[in-house]
Amino acid sequence: MSKNKRSSKNLVIFTLVILVLFITLFALNQATKDTEENNDVIAFNGAPEITNQPTMGDPNAKVSIVEFGDFKCPACKAWGETIMPQLEKDYIDTGKVTFSYVNVLFHGEESTTGALAAESVLAQNPDAYWTFHHELFNAQPANQSHDDLWLTPEKVLELAQTYTPEVDLDKLKADVENQATMAQVNVDNQLVQDFNVQLTPSIMIGDVMVTDPFDYNKIKEIIDRQLAE
């Protein structure tokens, strides 16, 4: 083989080696980037079904947000006080997203009582639901232990009477006692299992769940990306 041919062959081999190294480094860099992104969100094959769920915002909005929450959960109350107002201002009130709430029953009987009562109010008068929802969270005692009893049938009736006079109290009382809305609560519980909800609040934006529900910048980033798709 002539010297020129050997040089040309070596040059081709060298070029191929450099190209392979470049592709490998790019792939490793992309894998690292993907890992970092995946630390911020958990992706699913679809978004939660929100039919018959309490929902606010323009029903034709492109993006849906779902909170998996528990009326007994202090972190859910804190999320509603710190993150939700900005979310409403930026995206819900402007018609860009819908916001739905799914009951989680991590605190047993009291969580169930709150969920049953809220679903009864929703069934009676959807316009009264969000007021009742917010007042349930507002009623969380500030100076009691996390597990102290407070979310009782008597308490939900007191809140309904005070803040949602349009709700039929006798029907609400009977619904809670007879677990009349348990079918919808069971639908919520199935969603909790389907989306492997481990903590409350858990926030899903479309088909992704944010790992830190209090990171509003990340929430905003995901919403904006989905709106642009």
Automatic annotation (TrEMBL):
UniProtKB keywords: Disulfide bond, Oxidoreductase, Redox-active center, Signal
Protein name per Swiss-Prot or TrEMBL: Disulfide bond formation protein D
InterPro entries documented for this protein: Thioredoxin-like_fold, Thioredoxin-like_sf, Thioredoxin_domain
One Pfam family, short name: Thioredoxin_4
Gene3D superfamilies attached to this UniProt entry: Glutaredoxin (3.40.30.10)
A molecular function GO annotation: oxidoreductase activity
Domain Thioredoxin: 41-181
Family: Belongs to the thioredoxin family. DsbA subfamily.
Organism this protein belongs to: Paenibacillus abyssi
